[in-house]
Specification:
Distance between the termini of chain A: 60 Å
Oligomer: heterodimer
Strand content of chain B: under 5%
Shape of chain B: flat
Radius of gyration of chain B: 24 Å
Largest interface: A-B, 17 and 13 residues
Distance between the termini of chain B: 48 Å
Strand content of chain A: 15-25%
Order of helices and strands of chain B: HEEHHHH
Order of helices and strands of chain A: HEHEHEHEEHEHEHEHEEHHHH
Number of strands of chain B: 2
Largest sheet of chain B: 2 strands, antiparallel
Helix content of chain A: 40-55%
Chain lengths: 316, 184
């Protein structure tokens, strides 16, 4: 029995090693088109481009980044779905793109039409405003709205628009919800005074640290790393949250060796805090969160099937 | 100019037909939401409203051309030669874009058949073949009729212009692709 176990163990180890060697042997057959679902200069764009830059230097691969924005990543997914699945076309979206946004778009696509490669970081989703507004907690926002102020709330995806709506409803106030393309656009709008407050997924970190911006609430199921005292959505009476990750995906049916090699390469850069990409991820999102393989598959599938509940909550 | 021209009527009918096509075929096929829709328990403007309003304006413009301006004295007259010119210019552009799109893949199929064009779209000289040949063809094709015949000088000018475009838009930028390479 012991012997059998030993043989099984060494066979398994050999298989794992063989797969790892296979993965690291893989090289893309040509330049990799890297589609990015959010506006240039935002959190997703910055890390995607820095990861590509680092992989070009480290692996000798060639990336051609391209913005394919709109509909919270669904436009990118539509473009990616029928692209060649040999690892030469990948996209940077967020888990929500393949979950709520894909379900809401009703575009005939499901997460099964894509191959999840690796997440890079979890959102640090905050409800953020300018410090100069004078608001220090979310209850100040509620007081302002109840005092008759019309508040413009920026959100970069349909899911976040729904959550902003439910947040206002739970507090007995109303927001003028403004859809924008990416958290960077929310930040620009807030900084320019075009928006009073809005969701930002981590890009606010520097501004909050500098004292220019303030995290009024956490959009997550957990407190924000940077502002742990800010109330969560659940504290504010909302049963939904904006938990999510930045994620690289490819078209369905990518060969295992390509999937593993790409995931491994992305993880090696995103998780290295000494690299530019890893440094930014550490600064904005508190460090890398690398989910790959079957765990990523089920994360994406669950996000899609669970999307209906929130949709129902805002329509019924 | 001639009092017998019916150009406004033709143009007006064309506008009405296009407006009907947009409002009744294009918008319903391409846009999921209606003119208005219920979003988060409130009525909101649907994605179909703006293009439908645009179609209404085009249609009303067409009606004005037919009903009010249809018999106007001062109307441009459409001559056969004008149509020939438009058809020629469009054909040159279409042929030029087809050359731009397929010259590279054809060259790869002939001279590097072990791989495919998509994988060479960022590799010299393959990435320039389509843009260069298509660009030169379009420029020579558009200049030649206006000069009443082909001159060798036109070819040199076209080649120089396309090379300058490559120098400006491709050489300094690592991540920028010339047409058609972003779409292959």
């Amino acid at each position: 029995m012991k012997r059998l176990l030993k043989t099984a163990m060494s066979t398994a180890a050999a298989l794992v090693l063989a797969t790892a060697a296979f993965a690291s042997d893989w090289t893309p057959p040509g330049p990799i088109k890297l589609m990015i679902a959010f506006k240039a200069g935002g959190g997703a764009d910055t890390q995607a481009r820095l990861i590509a830059e680092a992989l070009e230097a480290k692996m000798g691969w060639k990336f051609i980044p391209e913005q394919v924005t709109g509909k919270g990543g669904v436009n990118l997914l539509a473009a990616l779905k029928d692209a060649p699945n040999d690892g030469t076309t990948i996209g940077m979206v967020v888990t929500e793109s393949l979950g709520y946004n894909l379900a809401a778009a009703n575009a005939g696509m499901t997460p099964a039409d894509f191959t999840g490669l690796s997440t890079t970081a979890g959102f640090q989703m905050g409800v953020v405003s300018l410090t100069s507004k004078g608001w220090t907690t979310f209850s100040d926002v509620v007081a302002a709205a109840k005092g008759g102020a019309s508040l413009k709330f920026g959100a970069m995806s349909p899911k976040l628009e729904d959550i902003a709506f439910l947040l206002a409803e739970a507090q007995g106030i109303e927001f003028n919800i403004v859809p924008v393309k990416g958290g960077k656009a929310v930040m620009n709008g807030v900084n320019a005074g075009d928006l009073d407050l809005g969701f930002m997924a981590g890009i606010q970190g520097k501004g909050v640290a500098a004292g220019d911006l303030v995290n009024l609430a956490s959009g997550l199921s957990t407190p924000l790393k940077q502002t742990p005292d800010a109330p969560t959505l659940a504290d504010l009476g909302v049963n939904y949250n904006a938990d999510g990750y930045f994620v690289f995906v490819g078209p369905a049916g990518m060969p295992e060796e390509a999937r593993n090699a790409l995931a491994e390469a992305i993880g090696s850069v995103a998780g290295d805090e000494n690299s530019k990409a890893g440094g930014i991820i550490k600064k904005a999102f508190g460090g890398a969160a690398l989910i790959t393989g079957a765990e990523l598959d089920s994360l994406l599938a669950d996000g899609f099937t669970g999307a209906g509940e929130l949709m129902k909550a805002v329509t019924e | 100019m001639t009092p017998h021209s019916r150009a406004n009527i033709y143009l007006g009918l064309g506008c009405i037909a296009f407006a009907a096509l947009v409002a009744f075929v294009w918008v319903p096929l391409d846009v999921d939401s209606g003119l208005v829709e219920k979003v988060r328990r409130r009525l909101a403007i649907g994605d179909a409203l703006a293009p439908t309003v645009a179609a209404v304006f085009i249609g009303v413009g067409g009606l004005v051309l037919v009903l009010v301006e249809g018999r106007a004295l001062e109307q441009a007259r459409l001559r056969f030669n004008d149509l020939v010119f438009v058809a020629l210019a469009l054909s040159i552009l279409v042929a030029g874009f087809l050359i731009m799109l397929y010259a590279g893949p054809v060259a790869v199929a002939l001279f590097a058949s072990e791989t495919e064009y998509r994988l060479l779209r960022d590799t010299v000289p393959w990435k320039y073949i389509g843009f260069f040949l298509g660009g030169v063809f379009i420029l020579v094709g558009l200049i030649t009729p206006s000069e009443n015949g082909f001159r060798l000088r036109t070819l040199w000018v076209a080649i120089a212009v396309v090379l300058v475009l490559i120098l400006i838009y491709d050489v300094p930028f690592e991540d920028l692709l010339l047409p058609p390479n972003g779409d292959v």
